[in-house]
Amino acid sequence: MLSASHDYELQIDENVLTWVFNNILLPDSTSDLQGSQGYIRFSIGVDATLAEGSVIDNDAEIYFDFQQPVHTNHALTTIVNNISVADGEVIPESFMIYPNPARDIIHIKNTSGNDQQMLLTNTTGQRLKLMEIGAGDEITLDLGDLPAAVYFLSAGRETYRIIRRD
Q1: Which residues of 81-103 are buried (b: 16+ CB within 10 A; e: fewer)?
Q2: pLDDT of residue 92
Q3: Worst-scoring range by mean pLDDT, 36-45, 46-55, 88-97, 110-119?
Q4: What is the phi/psi pair of residue 87, to 5°?
């Protein structure tokens, strides 16, 4: 446990962690935005037997009083074994992505020489679009249905930051 906004009780049941904040009586956000914020910060170790490429999916449900839970976005973490690069080593990019920033459409050209699968996620790790792109092919990706924000396109070990603007 790294920190918390209030005193809590922690319960652990197999792979589920439950934090309980009893009687913290947060004010509503319209009258006191700062005071209405409750949080936890935690860190966990990773199971050493997880294979490279394994995805850890984390989400939370927040309960207020006796209301239905509020579901948070999913945070996805992919296990990689080696992310270091030797000094001076240049890793060629496998994709040309343009324009970036973009309003609605971006073009993606696969220069890797291999068929690839690309995943578009938002900053919380939520999976938005999954697409296939053949070796040497160019596709268009329509971002028009997404709000202006920062997104990530991932393929293999490469991740590209994409900016959707109004």
Answers
A1: eeeeeeeeeeeeebbebeeeebe
A2: 58
A3: 88-97
A4: -55, 130
pLDDT of residue 90: 47
**Residue 142 domain flag:** yes
In a domain, 128, yes or no: yes
Total domains in the fold of the chain: 1
pTM of the complete model: 0.47
Q: Which two tokens stand for residue 62?
A: 């927040």
Q: CA nearest 8: which of 26, 17, 21, 18?
A: 21
Q: What's 152's domain CATH number?
A: 2.60.40.10
Domain that holds residue 112: 96-164
Residue 143 domain flag = yes
What pLDDT, on the 0 to 100 scale, is given for residue 81?
67
Taking the alpha carbons of 18, 23, 28, 32 in that order, is the dihedral positive or negative? negative
Token pair 């037997």 is at which residue?
Answer: 49
Show the tokens assigned to 89: 């080593």
